[in-house]
Amino acid sequence: MKKLSALACILIFAFSSAQVSEFQKADSKYERKIKSLYKKYPKPNDERTKQEWLLTEEKISAYKNALEEISEEEKKMVTDVPAPVAPKITKEAEYEAGKPAFQKLLNEATDLTFLNFAVNPYKITLKFTLDSKGNVYNAKVKGNNEDVNAFIEAAFYRIRDKGKWKPAESNGRPELSVVNLPLQLNFSK
């Protein structure tokens, strides 16, 4: 059983890394195309604005597709199964460096400059499942803008391995739990 759990963790890590590269591919493709567009139209005009919007929509779509693939693969790799009767949690799950450090890391990993988005603070609720071994999966972001939420969710997957989450506990034993984390992120232009 331990070997199976270890294998699932390795597969989740490998797949997550592959999906992060999908975000990087989308970023690279967008940057290439936007540079080409700016060469073709050095001064702002209606056509350039229209093309910028189309490129932005393409990048948003690529991110959302990558997030859907992550979700589908995570469903296949879940190793912890919730107990039929959820145990009483005596200690909540927590980020090892603390919530402010996690919020800072997430904020820094979220790049919305291409969207020209600056609502400060942007309030979200980050919800994810944390298994008894500290593995995170099934992340979802709820906020006022679906596109911005997708980029914050992608940023979460980019930083997922940059720190450890301590699982919730029930009488000293680690337990599977769902974490609901309200956050305020700041984006500057």
Quick summary of this structure?
The chain has 4 helices and 7 strands; from the N terminus they run ααβαββαββββ. The strands form 3 sheets. Strands 3-2-7 form a 3-stranded antiparallel β-sheet. The protein has a two-stranded antiparallel ribbon with strand order 1-4.
How would you summarize the topology of this molecule?
Elements (H helix, E strand, L loop, with lengths): L1 H39 L5 H32 L16 E2 L3 H11 L12 E9 L5 E7 L3 H14 L5 E2 L1 E3 L2 E3 L1 E9 L4
Antiparallel strand pairs: 1-4, 2-3, 2-7, 5-6
Helix pairs in contact: 1-2, 2-4, 3-4
Describe the structure.
- The chain has helices at 2-40, 46-77, 99-109, 146-159; strands spanning 94-95, 122-130, 136-142, 165-166, 168-170, 173-175, 177-185.
- It has 189 residues and is α+β, with helices and mostly antiparallel strands.
- The relative contact order is 0.17.
- A 3-stranded antiparallel sheet has the order 3-2-7. A two-stranded antiparallel ribbon has the order 1-4. A two-stranded antiparallel sheet has the order 5-6.
- The model is unreliable at 11-17 (pLDDT under 50).
- The radius of gyration is 19 Å and the shape is elongated.
